[in-house]
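Fill in residues.
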């Protein structure tokens, strides 16, 4: 079975979107990942479709450093994730990137992990009902790049 690999567009060098998407499709990539839904979100999705690329992942809520590890953020993040889940389901985007946040002085790592899990539980069934995965992806960030991320310690 061939491997299906996506490309995280925001980490690529800046270039014309159509040229980039065409090049990615020509290489054989079937999918892209984006971060935020900027003002041109519809254009991003339309351009991807033009070149046969599927948008498979996007950020589900604001603020990488101020994330789910803080219970005081749960109401805000739940609301943002519910909106993102609806948009993802409507667009056929299967995954939302969720952030545990930076290390918080006074919160032990185990507590921060539990807080993150509690925050995700608030929307897990809603996401599941809509066929959307909640992806905690800071694990892919090295400590050298982001030493304050919870999962980099």
């Amino acid at each position: 079975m061939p491997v299906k690999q996506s490309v995280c567009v925001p980490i690529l060098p800046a270039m014309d979107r159509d040229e980039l998407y065409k090049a990615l499709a020509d290489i054989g990539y079937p999918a892209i990942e984006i971060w935020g839904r900027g003002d041109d979100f519809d254009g991003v999705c339309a351009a991807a479709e033009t070149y046969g690329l599927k948008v498979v992942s996007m950020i589900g809520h604001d603020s990488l450093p101020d994330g789910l590890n803080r219970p005081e953020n749960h109401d805000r993040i739940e609301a943002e994730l519910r909106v993102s889940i609806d948009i993802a389901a409507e667009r056929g985007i299967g995954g939302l990137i969720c952030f545990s946040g930076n290390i918080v002085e006074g919160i032990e790592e185990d507590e921060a992990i539990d807080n993150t899990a509690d925050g995700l539980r608030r929307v897990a069934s809603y996401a599941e009902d809509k066929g959307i995965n909640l992806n905690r992806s800071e694990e892919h960030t090295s400590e050298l790049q982001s030493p304050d991320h919870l999962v980099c310690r």
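Strands lie at 6-8, 31-33, 54-59, 95-98, 133-136.
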